[in-house]
Every structure is written in structure tokens, then in C-alpha cells.
Amino acid sequence: MKYVGKQLREDRRVTQEELSEKSGVSRSIICGLETGRTKTTTTKTLFRIAAALDVNINDLFSSGANA
């Protein structure tokens, strides 16, 4: 599965800083997830990001052939 939160964030025209403030997740963690530098994180972090983007946690990931 591939993290696609960056696309969701950009579609909503939200900066990493704004997402950080809204979710309570540090910008460095958000950046790491988006760049692939961070491979693991807590479920709580993912739920916070999903809630801030107003999506289901499953929407943060793509399991398609292009993932």
C-alpha cells in the first residue's frame, strides 16, 4: 500500500503546516510520510491526519497496481 495523503492534502489546497496545525501531527512526520522517508507511524497519527482531511483512514492509502 502506498500513502496518498499528499494528493488528498493538495486536492484540498492545504499546506503541510496547515495540516499539522489542524491535526496536531508534526510537520516533519507529515513530510516524512509524504516523501516515503517515514515508513511507519502510529494508528493515532493516521486517524488524526484523516480527520483533519475529512476522509476515512483507508482513503490515505492506495492498494492499486500503481501503488
How would you describe the overall organization of this protein?
It is a single chain. With 67 residues, this protein is mostly helical. The chain has one domain: lambda repressor-like DNA-binding domains (434 Repressor (Amino-terminal Domain), Orthogonal Bundle), CATH 1.10.260. It has 4 helices and 2 strands, in the order βααααβ. The protein has helices at residues 5-11, 16-23, 27-35, 43-53; strands at 2-3, 61-62. Strands 1-2 form a two-stranded antiparallel sheet. α2 crosses α4. The longest helix is centred in the last third of the chain and has 11 residues, at 43-53. It starts with a strand and ends in a 5-residue tail after the last strand.
Helix-strand blueprint:
Layout lengths: L1 E2 L1 H7 L4 H8 L3 H9 L7 H11 L7 E2 L5
What does the overall shape look like? globular
Query: How many H/I helices?
Result: 4
CATH topology name:
434 Repressor (Amino-terminal Domain)
Largest sheet: 2 strands, antiparallel
Arithmetic mean of pLDDT: 93
Q: What is the name of the CATH class?
A: Mainly Alpha
Number of strands: 2
Helix content: 40-55%
CATH homolog superfamily:
lambda repressor-like DNA-binding domains
Order of helices and strands: EHHHHE
Using only CA atoms, what is the Rg? 11 Å
Question: Assembly state here?
Answer: single chain
Strand arrangement within the widest β-sheet reads 1-2
**Distance N to C terminus:** 6 Å
CATH architecture: Orthogonal Bundle
Poorly predicted tracts of residues: none
